[in-house]
Amino acid sequence: MRNSRRSLFVKTLLRVASSAGLLATLLAGAAQAQIVATATTPVQLTAGEPVVTTLTIRNLFREDVTVNLGYDRQRNIVLQVKDPGGEISSRTVPVRDGVGRRGRVAITQGDTYEQQILLSDWGPWEQEGVYEVTIAITGRVEGESGRAYGAPSPAPIRVVIAPRDEAALRQTAARLMQSVLTARSAQSEIDAERALTSMADPVIVPFLGEILDRSTMGHSRVIQALGRIGTLEAVEILRAAWGSTNEERAALAGDAIRRLEAARDSK
What is the CA angle 7-13-14, rounded to 5? Predict the structure, then answer.
């Protein structure tokens, strides 16, 4: 009888220990999941379109937190990419000159933070087919209390690149041009202009020209994109911009034309 009671007691202890271990595992998992990152992309893109995703970070902690996304809210975002050929690579965004946004983002308890990310800045998406991508945030997450938390779990997305479709490219360029011209905030304008000028296809040239025609701003990214594309139509637009009363635009256009002429003479 005494042995039977001892055996029952041991079994009970084992069950309690097992339950406690399971509970600890669940609690640890829940703690890691208290700040959640997700991302969404279009179902399919045509070759040459900008690859854009919306990153959402949700704070489920019982206090306000800050998440350090790095320079311009991009530097601490790392992509793990498996391309259509099966090659796996890690991508970080190149450091750019100029002024960037403050990297630390404050998220109140129970709130979410959303940011558009131009994945084209992290490298090329030239192959047709399916890219399996994981977006990881490597920056520090800190509570209002000063407590450091683990980074959000990586957000998986799928990017599907279809063969080049000129009509789709024109439609995308027209939409982004309109977004540049009608943006209600400086950041929205920057996001749209970055996406448009990331497209290297000559079909965007007329839309770049229309931005310069309808806006009095310098639009350095537009000038630089025209210089990279370098078609006859692009050069004509640059020459017109060279004579602009906007000094910044005129200087940038002149520099772009001189670079194109130097490249032509060196051949």
Answer: 90
